[in-house]
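Two entries, shown back to back:
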Amino acid sequence: MNPNPNISPWLYQLKRTRPVDIISGDLTTDIVVVGGGISGIMTAYFLLKHTNREITLVEGSKVAHGATGHNAGQIVSEFERPFTDLVREYGLQKAVDAEENTLYSWVLLDEIYAEAKLQTPLSSFMGYNGYKHRAHVVDALKANLLRQYAGTVTNPVYIAKEWLLRNKLPEEFKDLFQTVPQSDILSLLETENTEYICATALKKGCVNSALLSEEIVGYLLATFKARFRLFEHTSVALASLNKDNVNLAVMTNRKDGNPEEGYQMHCNQVILCTNGFERIRIKNNSGDEIDAKFHHMVNGDIGYMAAYIEDLNHPPTALGYYDQDETDSVNIDAYNDIPYVYKTRRPYELEKNEMHNLICIGGPEQQVAETQDYDRYAPFIKEKGEIIDDFVRKNVLNHKDKTLEYKFKWHGIMCYTPSNMRVVGSEPKNPLLYYNLGCNGVGIMTSIFGGYKIAKMFVGEKFAPSIFDPKK
């Protein structure tokens, strides 16, 4: 029997040849990055590229085996919150800056691929989100109106002409959408479900983020031999922040029956990029207490996903389906409490020289009290699979009367901050502590920009106040 029933298609493809290096003694370094997922790896990449500092990356398990290896493999340039809600809370300029910075991550990702000569398949394309209700149509148009006012790019919005014959929209929106036959919208969304009356378009992509992370790590180890070290199965138990330096108490997490061993890491700064940070205690010896606030910085949700294969006869895509109940206005709390479902499709080599399209469906979630309580080896919950099955029968073409055979079923922990926005930057109570955390369900693009921003901060670049700033 497989000792780990939670194998994603991304980890299935991950054939590591690199040996695991576990810390075996005290050491001194410039900067410690905690967390070997996409966030920590991107942070290390940009620090090595833009500074001359010595970087040590520590990971409690193995690189990319946490949330990075248990996601949907989808790249999106959007947030978990509607743009209109970000404008209400933070103001128009900060909301626009957040969108533009996240879009800029596509440029950064292309540069990484070119510089490191990466071979991990990456697909980018125009993806679509589908909506059933007037409230979401209006909110999408309000967002475009705000973007237009700010002088930034608007997102294409397509509305079914059949629906517009029965529903009147405010005159101010007339130039912010295109009227099309509903059949066109259903075609974009690849569904026959006639409840969908609107589709919005934005750049999306697909990538195996575990494979990508491992390839970047290999590049960093080969290119920056004198300045980069990586320790896996190594957890930080205590971060003691002083005025001029940081001391980390670390523990090895051995799986060979040997007892755990503890060591000290001495550094100038530490950057936390991990979902499992409830295990880390923070002692601020040079300022106000941080630990209590830190442990309330995120909540955890478990996301459930499943995938099946089809013939390689359609291009890659990423689609979102929003099924919230009709309301007169979009309330942010209700908006986030009601799930949406997403579908991705990309070429996938299940066995050597055996290419298929892999169709991934995700959306069901379950809260956990603490992210450290998440069991990555727990079996897939049957009821979550039934939700996915029901969605496929109702919304995916050619599957109304079929029983699907899923090649993979998996789950992963997602880290949500109270604001549902990533936290990037230095801790106001001690500037030696930095954060690049909070995947909020859409982690790859914001992880990239977060790592880039932190590296630029280390070389003295100044940034305007941002949605992503740690709160005082």
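entry 2 starts here
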Amino acid sequence: MTSGWRQRLSLRARLMVVGLLGVAGALVIGGVVLDAVLLTSLSRTVHGEVRASAREVAALVDAGRLPEPVPVSGAEIVQVLDAGGHVVGGSLSADRLTPLVTEAERRRAVAGETLVVPGNRAGLSGQLQVAAVEAGPRTARVTVVAATSTSTIEQSGHTLRLLLLGLLPVMLLVLGLVAWRVIGAALAPVESLRRGAERIDEASADDERLPVPPTRDEIAALATTLNEMLARVAGARRTQRAFVADAAHELRSPLASMRTQLEVAQHLGDRSDLTVGLLAEVERLSSLVEDLLLLARSTDTPPVGGRATSLLATVLRAVVDRQESARAPVRLDLGAGVGTVDSTTAVAMDDRDLTRALTNLVDNAVRHATSRVEVSASVAGRLARIVVVDDGAGIPAGDRERVFDRFTRLDDARDRDSGGTGLGLAITRQLLTRAGGSVTLGDRGTGSGLAVTLTVPLAQPTHPGADPATRAPAR
């Protein structure tokens, strides 16, 4: 449970928590040590003062000039005890009957130990710090006992502890804010690397790299290593695309020859099932080769958005007209009013690329539709939006991203007649992404079916007042 809680925190938060826990522990230990050192120092100071007072009184005893009562400074208490432990003299505040110390305590105090006794022996609350010194002639030795209350020491310790407890949260808060900013600044290059890596995908240029921070630290070394890895991956992608393009190109000639021979055989009267089946397979294989070649070239060609444009309405009508004899009728709706696609609406996408992308989607819709296919287009801001809707079985939400992978066909579309090559949607997304557009799959809205939405940037006029339909020649 604890490890799960830690894993849910970001690296920045974990570093800050660990740092604050370490600082808090250090502050607590430092506070305890400071309190102990302060109390020990104050105790030694007080002990030195009462011992000095006891020596002064002992000097008076040695000189035979001990006054009665014994003079003291402040709240000190002084008793003079004979060899039997009886009080024979003392200060005005001292008890004349009960000694402050027992015989064992007296010996320890005379030996120089720091002695603390209960304050109720002198009618006071708290405790008393005691010091003792022997004085007088050898035949009549006495012990001078001096004591003072430890309330000052206790009050100082209490004040220090309250101060530490009050300052600890404030210090941790300030340190936490500073640590959050400092750790954030230290991790900023990592966030920059993450954003750079997030931008790199299949549509990115082969020379796109991650930003390398100017510092010569581990993060800069990591960025450099990742860029070297990206260079190797880009090289492998170029090699793979070149192989696919070369293989597809080389397969064109033998496939064309096979198709020609089969067509000649049919023309000469050989219309057997084998000939018909082989010709269908050759046509399908030729379509697959053309798709592979187009996919390889579209990935290897730089984006053309902003240079080649096409008239959206013209391309849409051409694509829909090709489906005139399709098994499911295709209806085109260019809208009316705000956002209408008219004869001058131009998009920043090459004619052939846009035609191929729309043809792939309309063909798929016709292949899987039950009774009809609807194609609509509109303009919103600087984007053209095309929606292709069919009333077929649709695609489950969990598979709507997977179908854009190459050679992906769902279980109900794996037969050769209805499944296609599995490259149509991959080619469509590649062409649209290269032009700065997008393609997404969604629900039809009512009943079963699938709605495919394309967005394509509108063409920018070459100068103010220019006709937006003006476009560069198709490649």
